Amino acid sequence: MNDIWAIIPVKEFNGAKHRLSGLLSPPERRLLAETMLADVLDAVAGCRLLAGVMIVTLDLHAKTLGEKLGARIMTEGARDGQTGSVNAGRRILAREGRGGMITVPGDIPAARAGEIDAVLSAHLAAPSFTISPAHDDLGSNAVVCSPPESVPLRFGDNSYFPHLEAARLRGIEPTVIRQPGIAMDIDHPVDLALFLRMPQSAGTRTRTLLDELGVPALLAGRGIG
Fold first, then answer.
1. What digits encode the pLDDT tens for the residues 9-38?
2. Partners of residue 146 on adjacent β-strands
3. Which pLDDT score, from 0 to 100, does residue 157 have?
4. I want to staple 103 with a disulfide (CB 3.0 to 4.6 A). Which of 7, 109, 110, 145 is the partner?
5. Rg (Cα) of the chain, in Å, rounded?
6. For the chain, where are the E strands, in sequence order?
7. For residues 43 and 123, is the Cβ–Cβ distance under 8 A?
8. What is the pLDDT of residue 11?
9. Mean pLDDT of 126-155
10. 33 within 8 A of 82, measured Cβ to Cβ
11. Strand pairing partners for 128?
């Protein structure tokens, strides 16, 4: 268990979160993406069960945040979306003989270290596959593979059930563990409303930023939430 590495894929922040463009300006969306990543890195830094952290990115600010955490910064696959970034990272871990990997996105700011450790604690001996889905049971917000390339991964808006099937096709019965903070990824205005209602949002950098930007009032004015 102590040889599992976290892989965090981070797209360049310019143009981030375009599905929030009706609510936030481009600079505000960039700032939101940076702030959510900072919250995710806070959670990862507090985990007891990780051997290390790898961030796959070309973004200079993400690189700086990762270096403060002591993370390995990789650029291979960084232009190939979430799937390409994660697969590039786990190829490296496999070549190094690492025991496994967990990947989480940079837009789950309500996630806590205890949640990530709970997912890792539920992970079985290799070969094994553990998944913690998004709140809508569409996305795959945390995925653990031992060894790192034990199950093919392809992320997207509807990846959860395909990942379950992919594990079973490899003869691995997936472990499913739900965690509210991990489940709450932010892509749409309604996601912001759900996040703001979560007790776990209190005290996060993201909650502070959203309050400063007046997002609760903006959402209420549009009848969202």
1. 999 999 899 999 999 999 999 999 999 999
2. 128
3. 85
4. 7
5. 17
6. 4-10, 52-57, 72-74, 100-103, 128-133, 140-146, 175-176
7. no
8. 94
9. 97
10. no
11. 146
The order of strands in the sheet holding 52-57 is 72-74, 52-57, 4-10, 100-103, 140-146, 128-133, 175-176
Which structural domain range is residue 152 located in? 4-216
| Residue whose entry in the numeric block shows the structure tokens 């507090």 | 46
Quote the CA–CA distance of 162 and 154 in Å, as a whole number. Answer: 8
CATH classification of the domain holding 139: 3.90.550.10
DSSP class of residue 161 equals H
Query: Averaged over 177-183, what is the pLDDT?
Result: 98
Overall average pLDDT of the 42-47 stretch:
97
Q: Is residue 58 part of a domain?
A: yes
Q: Which of the four pLDDT bands, split at 50, 70 and 90, describes residue 173?
A: very high
In a domain, 225, yes or no: no
Residue 90 placed within a domain: yes
User: Which residues are CB-neighbours of 186 under 8 A, at least 6 positions away?
Assistant: 17, 32, 36, 107, 108, 109, 192, 195, 206
In the chain, the number of structural domains is 1
Query: Percent of the chain having pLDDT more than 70?
Result: 99
Q: How far apart are CA 175 and CA 125, in angstroms?
A: 11
Q: Are 100 and 4 in contact (CB under 8 A)?
A: yes
Distance of CA 198 to the CA centre of its chain: 18
Distance CA 40, CA 163 (A): 23
